[in-house]
Amino acid sequence: MPITIDDYDVFKIPKRKGGFRTIEAPKDYLKEKQEDILERLYQKVPVSPFCHGGVPFRSIVTNAYSHVKQDVVASVDIVNFFPNTSKQLVMERLRKLTDDENLIKDVENYCFLEDRLPQGAPTSPYLANIALIDFDWFMARFCCVRGIQYTRYFDDITISGKKSLIRIIGAIIRTVIPEMIYRYGRYKVHKEKIITAGRKMVCGVVVNEKLNVPRKYRRRLRAEIHQKGLNNATTLGKYNFVRMVREADTSNLKTSCELCRQWFKDRIAYSILTENKIKRYLKNIITESLYYHKHYKLDGVKELLDIKAFIYGDKDVI
Fold first, then answer.
1. pLDDT score recorded for residue 103
2. Deepest of 17, 100, 211, 281, by most Cβ within 10 A of its Cβ?
């Protein structure tokens, strides 16, 4: 039988900044099935290394790491992320990533509500990451070639870079991301924010000089612990969050740009590409970069044209 709203417990919880969020929590029998599907997804379907929410061994800390010590930090939110992630989009991406027909059928039959992702199902975060895998890779590569870091934590998209790149960062956050995320998934964004001075935060984590928690948050937590101790579940959760951020081992972490550069190296080394294949591969990158530089009037067009001329001579390949 098809899954309906009767298979979910629907309730509302208050948002931190006002308003309410509707939660659609699956009933126990459905939740158990979805958790089994999720484990199989973890094993068989990879997501991009640039998304950090709902992925094993990644967290708010790994998401923030790429943006430590950056001069400019900019962010934008996806509007109604889970409800706006359609069944059609997820299934299209999933079929490209796995040929496990049993898994595909189970996802199709048990993980959607009214042809969209329910906000509250254990499978929804990972399936949303699958839906945005092409967008994540496009944005990471697009930013990397400009020396800009890109990460996404659920519906929070963050980019960062040096002060000299502020104009490009502004164009990306205000124009490129809204255009491309609509093209890849019919999503819309809001709450654009660019921070150039003072305390820089990524999803609640301070990234100025090192990963940290805001001083005000720590002060309030100390007072709360003094009054209630650590027996209170909420207080204990806040205490563990502070420890997770401040004691995080970042020695083995890589920034998004480092991951992207490794991808470029592996791609070329894996193929042992012929000269023509390398040219075709570079052509796609240069064509894409030139289009956006001209379209959004960004700096660096002359340098890109010089690279194009060096590779292709005088022949216009664009």
1. 96
2. 211
Report d(CA 281, CA 267) in Å as an integer. Answer: 10
Confidence bin at 93 (pLDDT 50/70/90):
very high
- Report the alpha-carbon distance of residue 16 to residue 307 in Å, rounded: 49
pLDDT at 268: 53
pTM above 0.90, yes or no: no
A 10 A CB-CB count for 221 gives 16
CA atoms within 13 A on the CB side of 256: 36
pLDDT given at position 302: 55
Of 151, 126, 129, 138, nearest to 180 by C-alpha is: 138
Q: State the average pLDDT over residues 60-83.
A: 94
Reported confidence tier of residue 15, pLDDT bands at 50, 70, 90: confident
* Mean per-residue pLDDT, 82-88: 95
Q: Residue 226: pLDDT above 90?
A: no
Radius of gyration, alpha carbons of the chain: 22
DSSP class of 76: E
Question: Distance between CA 301 and CA 238 in Å, rounded?
Answer: 48
Overall residue count recorded for the chain in this entry: 318
Residue 51, C-beta contacts closer than 8 angstroms, at least 6 positions apart = 58, 129, 132, 136, 151, 152, 153
CA distance 235 to 198: 28
DSSP letter (8 states) at residue 204: T
Tokens 């928690």 belong to: 213
> Which stretches of the chain are DSSP H helices?
28-44, 60-65, 87-97, 101-110, 124-131, 133-144, 166-171, 177-185, 215-228, 233-246, 256-271, 275-295, 301-312
